[in-house]
Amino acid sequence: MARFIDPVCKRCRREKVKLYLKGSRCYTPKCPIDREAPPPGMHGLRRSKVSEYGIRLREKQKLKFFYGVLERQFRRYFELAGRSPANTGEVMLTLLERRLDNVVHRLGFAPSRPAARSLVAHGHVLVNGRKCDIPSVLLRAGDSIKVKTRERSLKLARTNLQSTPPQVPDFLMITNNDEPEGKMTRLPTRQDVDPRISDIREQLIIEIATR
């Protein structure tokens, strides 16, 4: 599986926006966007006009980096969204919101999506009472998400819940705080998309994905 092994802050600097890839660090003065750090590379300070293609590419890359998906995964979501009679861009965003790692993060069990992905991949999360170590699983309405009742697993989730109380979206609900557990009460809509990426222009992404 492909992995990005460079400092993830490079991605924020490249897109010139916060992608919240480092958890609580993104809210401190250490964030390169707050320090107005230039884009990475020896030509980072060079000012050049961005083409129409470049504008659309940057929107797509922001979305991919924010949710932590690769190009092949992005194409799969685009194809699934294209089969729906609803707006393709909005459906694609809701599919990304239904990913297990995203739900674990938005419930507050992990400080960031990369941390949530690690939590799931290492087997700390149960879906409907069964172990699930696939971060890309798409959840359905009524699915329950619970942290394993094991000391190490509970400690990881409780620490984050206590340090940063989550702002749980309307389509999710925390059902137990002592043994962290949540539930997807309904399928997410465009209004439920993470507010930190809600200004994404999905129409531009669809335009480049259909080229």
Question: Which labels suit this protein?
Answer:
single chain, 211 residues, alpha+beta, Ribosomal Protein S4 Delta 41, Chain A, domain 1, Structural Genomics Hypothetical 15.5 Kd Protein In mrcA-pckA Intergenic Region, Chain A, 2 domains, five-stranded antiparallel beta sheet, 8 helices, 9% strand
Radius of gyration: 18 Å
- % residues in beta strands: 5-15%
Under CATH at level 1, the class of the largest domain stands as Alpha Beta
CATH architect. name of the largest domain: Roll
Q: Which runs of at least 5 residues are low in confidence (pLDDT < 50)?
A: none
Give the mean pLDDT: 87
State the end-to-end distance: 26 Å
Major sheet description: 5 strands, antiparallel
Write down the secondary-structure element order: HHHHHHEEEHEEH
> How many structural domains are formed by the residues?
2
Shape: globular
In CATH terms, what is the fold-level topology of the largest domain? Structural Genomics Hypothetical 15.5 Kd Protein In mrcA-pckA Intergenic Region, Chain A
- How much helix is in the residues? 25-40%
